[in-house]
Design brief:
The strands form two sheets. Strands 2-3-4 form a three-stranded antiparallel sheet. The protein has a two-stranded parallel sheet with strand order 1-5. The protein is of the alpha+beta class.
Length: about 170
């Protein structure tokens, strides 16, 4: 039997690059942080399922009629789906907060969207909002880190000093 010793911490000197999950980065800070794959949509499979469950609310099922060949959602199902969506959104917001607050000097968010025109339209709608807060309905529709951060940043693209920029790469450039 050979004792290989415990795991050694990665070298933090000399400009080492650390790749880690958002969960593992909690409590740490870095000069620069890159959040990759920010366009990945939140996983909503269990919200869209035809059976949904909640610890307190119970079981939500679709109402199916064989005779009429129809499928209808029930009130309890819609209530559970809405609660699950709020819970998922709250967790995504917590993760995004942890991710963006790790950077001391520079934060880079990289993501793609299957429909960039739709994402731009979604962000640009915020420019017509006279309030300085983003409406909850817009937040809840933002189904990725990229769309969430875009909502917040789009108003500040022309600010001086330049703190934000959006760059769009065409498919041929990728």
């Amino acid at each position: 039997d050979v004792d290989f010793g415990g795991a050694q911490a990665a070298d933090t000197a000399g400009g080492a690059v650390h790749m880690m999950t958002i969960h593992k980065s909690k409590g740490l800070e870095f000069p620069a942080v890159i959040i990759a794959n920010a366009g990945k949509e939140n996983n909503q499979l269990d919200i869209r399922s035809n059976i949904v469950m909640d610890e307190k609310l119970g079981l939500g099922l679709e109402l199916r009629s064989i005779e009429e060949r129809t499928v209808k959602t029930t009130a309890i199902m819609e209530t559970i789906r809405a609660k699950k969506k709020r819970d998922l959104f709250a967790e995504e917001m917590r993760l995004l907060y942890v991710a963006i607050t790790r950077a001391k000097e520079k934060l880079v968010i990289i993501g793609t969207d299957r429909n960039p025109e739709s994402a731009e339209k979604f962000w640009n709608m915020e420019l017509f909002n006279p309030e300085m807060t983003i409406p909850y309905a817009d937040f809840i529709r933002a189904n990725s880190f990229m769309k969430l951060t875009g909502l917040a940043c789009v108003r500040h693209l022309d600010d001086e000093p330049k703190l934000f920029s959006f760059e769009r790469a065409e498919p041929a450039e990728m």
